[in-house]
User: Fold this.
Amino acid sequence: MLKRLLTLLLNERGDVTVTDPTPAPEAPQAPETPPETPPETPPETPPETPPETPPVMVPLAALKDEKKKRQTLAEENAYLKGKLDAVITPAPPAPQAPPPVDLAPVKPVKPKAADFEEWADFEAAEAQYDADLEEYHEKKTEYTVNKALETRGTQAAQQAAQQQTFKTFKDRLTKAYETDPELKDIVANYHLPASPHHVPINSAMEDTIMTSEVGPEILRHLANDRTESARIAALPPLAAAREMGKIEAKLSAPIVPPTRVSQAPEPVSTVTPVGAVKPFDPETAPMEEYYKVRTAELFKRKSK
Assistant:
């Protein structure tokens, strides 16, 4: 303390500069941090190799069986794939055969001398022409005979069909004559305008009458309504056939028997006076009333 006072006094005088011999305290130093050391990585261990397995010895017979199984599976897969493709993609339609061409023999053309430079060539052409002409006549005769036989066969088939249709219609008429004897006169004279049994009928109407199962009934229907028959006969064939179809459908429909209506008079309704007790009717009485009445009757029978 005394040293500090002296120092202050001397400094004020300026003569002497006294410094405090006491050293100034040193600033505290930060503690040194040791350098960071990276963590030690464990040494890499090489991957363990699996122990080698000894090869398996497969019998030769097993290998053959396995190969056969695989081949069978491949064949089955190919078969099923073909089936599936056939279903998914339908087969194209079979090509239609072209219609037969009617090839008539062609008559050869006679050669002309002006078309040849050498006379020998013309004579050779004439000789070939004579041979071709003879062959042409043979083929034409054969062709004509075949066409005639073909036409005759077609006509014979048509004639047989017409005979069968006529026979069937005749059988239907015979059955219809049993219930309608006048129909015989209509069939015999319907085409005669002066006959009282004349019925105007064209060819389309005749075809329908001949081929229909109700042909006799159609003829009788037209005979009963000759105005309608004349109207249909004046129509074109297609329209006449359409009208005949309507008549055929009408006559072919099943006959529904009419409902019989009773001719008995209606029962007289009785008026029950107000307050009067209706007589007991077991057929129409309610179940409770029926039960009460029947119980009373049974009780009376037992008490007697």
User: Anything to note?
Assistant: The chain has a mean pLDDT of 75.
